[in-house]
Design brief:
Number of strands: 10
Helix content: 55-70%
Strand content: 15-25%
Structural class: alpha+beta
CATH architecture of the largest domain: Beta Barrel
Strand order of the largest sheet: 1-6-5-4-3-7-8-9-2-10
Shape: globular
CATH superfamily of the largest domain: Hypothetical Protein Pfu-838710-001
Radius of gyration: 27 Å
CATH topology of the largest domain: Hypothetical Protein Pfu-838710-001
Distance between the termini: 53 Å
Length: 502
């Protein structure tokens, strides 16, 4: 796997590369002939989402290449050695695009014959920037072999700096190059239609909410290949996208209506991802705790039980995730999400001005937190009260997600509200995580005891976790009082600001 940072430009057939001397040492140009077959579904599901899958001969990187959508200026590229067959996509790559193909067959949709001239910018032996000047002949296999020709220039960052890439781009533009709007050569040839987007009234609550939902659907899809590869933090990010979507559908139920079945399916997917995520967090938590102890206090095979054993369970959990992500239930969920952002069922509130309607929803989100808190504090039984405080944490998380969703529309007050809700969530989470960690350690200690192992270190860790949980519990009244006061000020400012504008 590699990460691509590049700038792509359209140029005329008689374009001349500018003088790049003074930026770095120049080597080249050197010419290559590249022949690439591009694979997609018949209705171009990959291209529509900015995904490129190709088999290329020629050049220094012949083989299979899967380029995933660009995010924050970076594209992830996954490579696979060249195979003899031109009809069968390597299963490892086909697996990574299942969220886009959803069971549809991959086939050759285009062929690109590229005459590439490569110029390198060097600092000694270090390759800083690669500039590829491409003259392309594209053949559309879906349209009776239609041929299209064009020329483009790419400047790709290797081991140089972003600042140097920007300087190169400036010189290319000054010589007549224009930034390309096409996400890839394939997109330029096939011109796939982008995913459908709902028609909403500009400045309305419906527009703001649907735009947010579309962003979270894209975030969920972008994590799918990373989860299948068990990349760091991917399960967490995909689970967060599920939670944000579900939270938004609840909070904005008067804007986008009739989403209860979809919320249930998002909860299902979140639960599927939750097992591995919880194991990841637990294993990392205990690993840090053990690393902080003096070596003489770590007795017995506790590192194996709390490390390798949990890691094995984590990997088994990944297999269950992959099974779920390859099933019809998941594909149906993704189809429903596509339908949500392209043809949402909008309620009457959707047509109202965004600020008017959404400010009230932000306030309602915090009201839900205070009601949950009051309900919990009214419970005399301490054990039942602790359970009820978990509802306060969930309400705070929902209020946080709602405020974050509204930040692009309502501005900095929503950022402040989200941070305040997160403060409540984190303190309660620290307490809850400490309680759960104690329970896990108790179970593992019992397993160790039955195996005849020394359980001294387990007891030490339980004490540390108990202390952490008790400190968070003791600190919560202060955090709650400060947060309630601050939230009241934020909501008053938001309400007053809206009143003045209206």
């Amino acid at each position: 796997m590699s990460i691509e940072i590049e700038d792509k430009f359209d140029v005329s057939s008689d374009y001349a590369l500018p003088d790049l001397s003074g930026l770095a040492d120049i080597v080249g140009p050197k010419s290559y002939q590249l022949v690439a077959l591009y694979y997609d579904t018949p209705d171009l599901r990959l291209a529509a989402r900015g995904v490129t899958l190709r088999r290329r001969r020629g050049g220094h990187d012949a083989g299979w290449h899967l380029k995933l959508p660009k995010a924050k200026g970076v594209r992830q590229e996954i490579t696979h050695p060249l195979t003899r067959s031109t009809k069968i996509v390597p299963p490892e790559l086909a697996e990574l695009v299942r969220a886009y193909t959803r069971g549809a067959e991959l086939q050759v949709v285009a062929e690109l014959d590229t005459r590439r001239s490569v110029t390198l910018l060097l600092d000694g032996e270090t390759r800083l920037i690669e500039i590829a000047d491409d003259r392309v002949k594209g053949v559309d296999h879906r349209d009776d072999g239609k041929v299209v020709r064009w020329r483009e220039v790419e400047a790709e960052l290797l081991d140089g700096s972003q600042a140097l890439l920007a300087k190169v781009g400036k010189r290319l533009r000054k010589a007549g190059a224009t930034p390309s709007e096409a996400t890839s050569k394939l997109a330029k040839l096939l011109e796939p239609a982008p995913p459908a987007k709902a028609l909403t009234k500009p400045g309305s609550a419906g527009e703001a909410v649907v735009d947010y939902l579309a962003g979270q659907v894209a975030a969920l899809l972008s994590q799918d290949p990373r989860v299948r590869r068990a990349e760091y933090d991917a399960v967490h990010q995909m689970r967060v996208a599920c939670r944000r979507l579900r939270s938004a559908l609840k909070a904005f139920k008067a804007v986008v209506v009739g989403t209860e079945p979809l919320q249930e399916e998002l909860q299902w997917l979140g639960n599927v991802l939750g097992e591995v995520r919880d194991l990841e967090v637990t294993r990392a938590r205990f690993g840090k705790a053990l690393a902080r102890l003096a070596p003489e206090l770590v007795i017995g095979p506790i590192q194996t039980r709390l490390g390798s054993d949990l890691y094995k369970r984590e990997q088994e959990g990944y297999e269950r995730i992959k099974d779920a992500l390859s099933g019809d239930r998941y594909y149906t969920l993704l189809n429903t999400l596509d339908e949500l952002v392209s043809h949402p069922n909008l309620g009457k509130a959707a047509a109202k001005p965004a600020e008017e309607r959404l400010s009230a929803i932000a306030a309602a989100g915090w009201d839900r937190v205070t009601r949950a808190y009051d309900t919990a504090q009214a419970i005399e039984d301490l054990e039942r009260r602790e359970i009820a405080m978990h509802d306060v944490r969930k309400a705070a998380k929902r209020a946080r997600y709602t405020a974050e969703a509204l930040q692009p529309t309502l501005g900095k007050n929503m950022s402040r509200l989200a941070k305040l809700a997160e403060d409540i969530q984190e303190v309660l989470g620290t307490h809850q995580d400490g309680v759960v960690a104690q329970e896990t350690l108790a179970k593992e200690a019992e397993n160790a005891r039955q195996a005849g192992e020394d359980t001294f270190t387990y007891g030490l860790l339980v004490g540390i976790e108990r202390n952490t949980a008790e400190r968070a519990h003791a600190d919560f009244p202060r955090v709650w009082a400060e947060t309630v006061k601050a939230v009241g000020k934020v909501l008053h400012e938001q309400s007053s600001g809206h009143s003045l504008r209206t």
